[in-house]
Amino acid sequence: MDAYRHIALCFSLIGAALLLISPIAAQDTGSIAPFETVEGEIGAGESQEWTFTAADGEVLSFVAESDDTLDPVMTLSNSSGTLISNDDYQYPDNPSAILEAVTMPRNDTYTLTITGFNDTEGSYTLTMYEGFANPDFVETGEWQSPSEELVIEAAEDQTALVISGIAQRGIAFTNIEAAATDLYLEVPVLEMSGRNTWVAGLAFRGSDSDRYYLYEVDERGQWRFLLHEDGQDQVIRDWLTHPAIIAGESSFRLAVLMRGSGFDFFYNSVYMGHLTDDTLDDGDQIGLVIETSNALDSETIGRFDHPRMTTPLEEAAVPQQIITSSASFTVQELQRRGLIPAEGQMRLTVSESFVTLNQPGVNKILLGGGETFADFAIGTTISWQIQGTEDPAGCGLVLRASGENDYLLAYVDQTGAYGVSSRSGDQFAPGIFGENATLAASDTHNLLLVLADDQLHYYIDGTLVGSLEDSAEAGEIGNAAINFEPAATSCQFNNTWLWAW
Question: What is the CATH class of 336-500?
Fold first, then answer.
């Protein structure tokens, strides 16, 4: 096992550097809101805090930039003080600190702390965005409609739509500069009114005004998702109530976050649900939507503020931290941050499993009944009891298993060492190896591995500890106990899950 013990050190310099940052007391506190830019300045060893409230499931991005000598670092915490994320961005090519498409885990007041890496100092600007980190604001005043019944009144600060008749739909379309597959689109609805009930919505990925997706809410407190194509509506999700939508509420915000064939829907920043459809993969039209009821003398009036749009950064770095919680929340976080595609399904869930080992080596138990997987994300929470040695012993996950002694092993041990290594016969090939003394302070850890696009990313307790090229060959998965010397090692695995596509 000596060769296995000494596999190559291969974790990012950024991650290592962040571990060296010492705690700094905050000097100033302010508040920040979405699409708002604030300015700050810190001296060596100082920090500043910015607070904001966010809803469970809301997606936010943060950009801290400095033209000064400051190299900013951001730390995101919740009201309990728990560290959620801490990223740098492509340093030294880009000293900006960026957190993109982070999912807020609960309704809470959050704190974003700005510090200077390695005691750097200077001024900075901080912007918080809904959705992604690249803003692209839509100009109003150029709205057009294929319907002669729709009246459009566009002013500098808002757009009003009016339509009358039985079950009439009116859409005011405008073109965005480029067809974006991945984007966040939000529109504030200033006021809805009319005779009988009303419907308001957003159209997106449109082309020729007759092919588009449609996200709508109505006066009764319901929402739905449609595909309109060749003059026909296809219901992807029919009218459904949600506690966040208050019946009769006439002022609200609608938003949709798109990642490939996946769509996340929001109402006043509250997450409504996730749906997938791959019919329309692009389209350069977006639209403001109103509808009348199926009743005589119906009329609907809607007033809309400027739509707001954000897109992902073109050269975003692999996130240094991922918020890990339940399997469904973690998958959602991975999708929104671009690590895995929107499509897929939960292929395996094991609430509890155990592996023991009393001699040097690896003892593995395969899961999944012989099923093999190629591209997937897998997570588990491990805990161990180790007796009879102070030498390395620990627990891990087996991946890409194709035989008794042919597999990939991701592990962490009680000394704080961790790694990913490929076994073929009796040989372990170098892959990822690192040591972090803080890991030795606990016998419980969360392991997360993402294997996609010929890359493997390994996270321990939500922190990226290494990445490497991956063969993408299909294989079985399982749990493992590891001893480098004789020991009585017992590994418990809770909530092991696998999402594949």
Answer: mainly beta
